[in-house]
Amino acid sequence: MGGAPPGGEPPSMGLRKLLAIWIAKLAVRVSRVFGRGGSTFPGTLARRVAPGILLTLGVQLPRGVILVTGTNGKTTTARMIAAVLGAAGLRVVHNRSGANLITGVTAAFIAGTDWRGRLRADIGLVECDEATVPRAVGELPVRVMLVTNFFRDQLDRFGELAHTVELVRSGAARLGPDAGLLLNADDPLVAGIGRSVSLPATYYGLEDGRHGVREMAQSREAKHCLGCGEPYEYSRYFYAHLGHYRCPKCGQERPQVDVAATRVDFVDARGLELAVRSPRGAFTVRAALPGLYNAYNVLAATAAGLAAAVEPEAIAAGLAQVTSSFGRMEPISISGRRILIALVKNPAGFNEVVRTILGDPDPIRLVIAINDNDADGKDISWLWDVDFERLAAAGDGIDFIVTSGTRAEDMAVRLKYGGVETNKITVEDDLTAGLARALRETASGQTLYILPTYTAMLEVRRVVAHLGHARPFWQA
Amino acid sequence: MIGIGPEIKICHLYPDLMNLYGDRGNVIALKRRAEWYGLRPVVDEVSLEAKPDFRLYDVIFIGGGQDREQQLICLDFQKVKGSSLAEAVEDGVVLLAICGGYQLLGRYYQTGDGEQLPGIGVVDVWTVAGKKRLIGNVVIETDVIEGPGPRTVVGFENHSGKTYLGGGLRPFGRVINGYGNNGEDGGEGVLYRNTLGTYLHGSLLPKNPDVTDFLLRRALVRRHGVAELRPLDDTVERRAHEAAIRRARSKAH
């Protein structure tokens, strides 16, 4: 079957579905009273009362749904797309909190309805967990499916990377005939989806050779050609296994790029400027986000905007408003201290965060909070694939590192074996105590980085919100 | 730190292909502890098509990979490296093989369709594809490691293959929490001569310094007849070990 058809007349809402919406809306109110985000539970509740609720809501969207999936950059990219669509004057329903399982999507759609069950939006924007893609495609009128990249992440939940890729591919294969794919050409695993699905695909990629390297030792996920098994030859790597590649045996290679960043400039280490080449002509976009990995996110959002028929001017205007999303290097201030929080969840992302920290001239003050709950991934062996050796090489540039969370001790061992002097490492299992300690040792005017896994991030947010210094994440 | 003691040659087999679960943490642990003991570790990375004399190494490590990569290695073992590696194992080389690497040392891996993919067969174990993935924190107790009383070893397992041991072989340890070789007989891993096969990653060696030292000692004895290692400060490692035991026992896991 294809996806649900978009743009239907608002259906007469059955009483059962209306009831589900009311219950979910009440649940949101109740959970907020207790200081929780309520980003998935109301969805679970509503689906129990009316299993077809998301389908009913989705068909009300005249412009269908843009679905964003992939390992890294989903939340940031979706937020940029939301800004772009907003700048074009579109009303967007979006699972903004990053709750990206089917229950979180349902909760976000319900939050976007009025009490009569009408969705007040023109277009849906869904950040989607890879394993949820087939289900989301079955329940939503997806018009554009954007796939950012594939990295090893939470292997205990997904099994092998090949399995994750297959989940997304099978979701793509179920898309309706009016849908299109938007794919990162620089990731062979993503581009391969375009070859295996008979839907039009638009490819985006980086073409600024100044940022590429010839060698990449770590974190390479796609070493062998998907077509014939021969190792790929790369003329350049941009970020982990993302780059310009070609199979020397069967000739399978990076596809022709439709939306390209021909130039990427870093503006005062805090922002990006991209020269874009597209079927709509050449234009420039800027965003206040650091790092080459964010250049991919900016480019993906640009391509998604073009796919949704947004004018380049509105795309640039939308991107210019973007700030870091939930835990993606968001700067906050606590009594004059500069606090930067970055979610860490897999080696490729963590390596980029380490690279950013090393680029900061301030002495390194760090809290690393590693939890091993279900949502984090119970297997923390991926910490050994992060290049903490590079962090350790900062030597006396490291002021202190506090390790915390349910796996604080494992993290301390990783740092010790990475070459960090043990007298710089403090193990503090309790995250509140760990944060308090780090804040005490950071003076006004100094910088502290906090790097939590997903559930540790929720805890960090709660502690920081308690101190009155950050918006609750469901408002961020 | 540069050691003045003997060189210790470490071979990291297929680091580009068999590195699924932080496997390189084991090589990092071997190298670091060797340095702290004043030895001079040298790590060679050996991948497809290379054909070294494995007897010249002191410690060989092979990790786990995805199905596709494991098939490439299966071929490489048959065509290039299998016999040399088997000779080295019989010669008493210290070999640590984890997850997929462990399976490949055995006689065969039987897929869900009943097809048998041959291993190098140097250790009398075989693996049968299971329907359920055996995933989670593991604690085992082993009396293989020298010293007073049994020792605990901690790690994380994630495999669907169920491995069985031939007669006369003993498992590396007895499962206290988790599944182990097959989730049926309570055994985990295997020790054959100086070859240790196991499903535990995590990474295994960093938070099990007793196992790391056991491997280094066996390697030194094979090469020099003696192994004297002065005690190190393992406070950080022991805390991680204890935390992993607590985590495995908490009901959430």
Describe this structure in words.
The complex is a heterodimer of chains A (476) and B (253). With 476 residues, chain A is of the alpha/beta class. Chain A folds into two domains: 306 residues, UDP-N-acetylmuramoyl-L-alanine:D-glutamate ligase; 139 residues, Alpha-Beta Complex (Protein-Tyrosine Phosphatase, Chain A). In chain A, 35% of the residues lie in helices and 21% in strands. Chain A is built from 16 helices and 17 strands. A nine-stranded mixed β-sheet of chain A has the order 2-3-1-4-5-6-9-10-11, sandwiched between helices. In chain A, strands 12-13-17-14-15-16 form a six-stranded mixed β-sheet, sandwiched between helices. A two-stranded antiparallel sheet of chain A has the order 7-8. In chain A, helix 4 crosses helix 10 and helix 4 packs across helix 11. The N terminus and C terminus of chain A are likely disordered. By secondary structure, chain B is of the alpha/beta class. Chain B has a single domain, classed as Class I glutamine amidotransferase (GATase) domain (Rossmann fold, 3-Layer(aba) Sandwich). Chain B has five helices and twelve strands. The longest helix of chain B has 24 residues. Chain B is globular and about 50 Å long. At the A-B interface, helix 14 of A face helix 1, helix 2, strand 7 and helix 5 of B.
Overview in brief:
The complex is a heterodimer of chains A (476) and B (253). By secondary structure, chain A is of the alpha/beta class. Chain A has 16 helices and 17 strands.
**How many strand units of chain A?**
17
Instruction: Please list the strands of the largest sheet of chain A in the order they lie side by side.
Output: 2-3-1-4-5-6-9-10-11
Q: What is the name of the CATH architecture of the largest domain in chain A?
A: 3-Layer(aba) Sandwich
At the first level of CATH, the class of the largest domain in chain A is Alpha Beta
Uncertain stretches of chain A: 1-10, 472-476
Please give the largest β-sheet of chain B: 6 strands, mixed
- Main sheet record of chain A: 9 strands, mixed
Q: Mean pLDDT across all residues of chain A, rounded?
A: 87
